[in-house]
């Protein structure tokens, strides 16, 4: 029997069901209300959005279309001013003059119409539109931004500003023009600036992150101290429209100027030296033979370069202001770009005799105050070709007077004794030590002799780099005579000779020697048959008087300063101080870095140095001295040495005129060296130039001269009216 709930239970169940149905209807009505609210809100939101879009499209459309054109951001470099260069007295030698230039940026996604831009610019820049177009399209293709015009006028600036919208990518930028206010004064010292050359792009652009458009130092101090002078570039961040016009500045990082440099150079002495050299060349009876001159003056105690002159001169401004084309022929024909004070070594002649005297004393070839009668000539080897003569019969000389009167025969014998070739006299040739053949001597004792002579000279700074702070320095050369009676000189590799002699007590074997020089052509390297000997006694003798060496003026300057400084050799240098950016050379608190040259004590016996110094004093004070008639009336005591070397120049036989000196004798302050290839005797051309340089120095330091003769340290106000400044081309 199926169970059924009781009557009461059934009534209760019906009530519950009725109540559930009523609640469901109420819930349904609640959900519908909520949905209506949501739909209403959505409708209102879309309505507001539509109204807002309409407002923006109609009322703000032009503004947003303009904003859409200015979404490109350009980070433009702002180049710094290069550091200034001052002389020792604070006179300005080089600075940056502000100017304006025009750059062009190749913009992605923008049709810049370069042909149209070229046509427009051609009207105001007076250049063919084809050239401008080629620059716009092809100049430095690997770079987005290029320098289009380095300098522009106010008229050109106005035209560009007015037509910016039609010339997208053009931007007027501030730039600088490197300016040398004294023209060709110290041109070879200062050097010049220019664009980065293709060969230097790896160094500057890739390694140092320079811009392709940056200007860098090419030569001289400008090149050597580029890292100090360049400074740090800044940046300007612009919001730029697609038509190339700047819309707003949104950021700026200012550049930092380069460090200012103060040199050891004395601008006044430099000016006097350049005027003097130009005048000496123009009035010399050897005018047709003189192609170049090099001269230096050093501070004996510090190594600072007070004057460094290379003739012919050039004006560094020629390389910066577009005038180089006017002077191209002069620069190429005169080789004025070469710095003859530190390169192109020349024969020093007898100026090496003070060093060789010390070398002879150190190696026992002579003793202090050695003296004997010297003949007019010396028979070194048999036959006429083995005879070498003096300029006159000096009679009895010792090691001091031999320097004063410049006795060649005395120094022939000294060098031969260093090389162990004994017995030469006016009538009899010399020979090797007893028991040694001439062939063996030429490979052993002769090599040792040249090592001692040339190595001793090298110790004074001759034939090696001085490491002056200028690019392009060349070291000197050593030569010796081919013993095969050909009379040709060939290079003597001192380092190789020293190493070979240390290893086996001779330079190289005969076969090796022949192979080394075989087939070489030129005035210094000619071999037409196998040599029978290695080194000639003639070559050793000539080494004693400076005919087998070539040195530069800066090497000679360091050498004579070392003698004056009692054997302390100091590195020549032009930089004195590196100053903080923007500061002038006033007060030590502004110094960023002080140059410290290297020093070497040669440990020469004071007695030997004194003998060499006394000999040099005799050159200028002994009536028989070779420089007496140039210096005997000077109010200061100078010690010097003339040098005259036989050379072939321009196809003609002539002589190098060379002079070295220091002053005052008892308390040396400065040393000078002058080399004038083709200038005649040392006392004829080089010595007067050296004297005028010393005069200029002591007059401005108010020493020795009368007050009426004193000068100041200013660069002469009429410098730009002097022939040395205005017509360097005509000085050739």
Your description of this structure?
With 732 residues, the chain is of the alpha+beta class. The protein has 3 domains: 72-260, Alpha-Beta Complex (Penicillin-binding protein 2a (Domain 2)), CATH 3.90.1310.10; 267-336 and 556-567 and 602-609 and 622-731, Beta-Lactamase; 349-550, 3-Layer(aba) Sandwich (Beta-lactamase). Helix content is 36%, strand content 20%. The chain has 24 helices and 26 strands. Helix 12 (353-362) packs antiparallel against helix 21 (606-621). The longest helix has 52 residues, at 7-58. Mean pLDDT is 84; it is low at 509-533.
Q: Give the DSSP E fraction (strand runs of 2 or more residues).
A: 15-25%
Mean pLDDT: 84
Globally, the shape reads: elongated
| Count of helical stretches | 24
As for the number of domains, it is 3
Flag low-confidence runs. 509-533
Distinctive features:
single chain, 732 residues, alpha+beta, Penicillin-binding protein 2a (Domain 2), Beta-Lactamase, Beta-lactamase, 3 domains, 7-stranded mixed beta sheet, 5-stranded antiparallel beta sheet, 24 helices, 26 strands, 36% helix
Give a concise summary.
The chain has 732 residues and is α+β, with helices and mostly antiparallel strands. Helices cover 36% and strands 20% of the residues. The chain has 3 domains: 189 residues, Penicillin-binding protein 2a (Domain 2) (Alpha-Beta Complex); 200 residues, Beta-Lactamase (2-Layer Sandwich); 202 residues, Beta-lactamase, CATH 3.40.710.
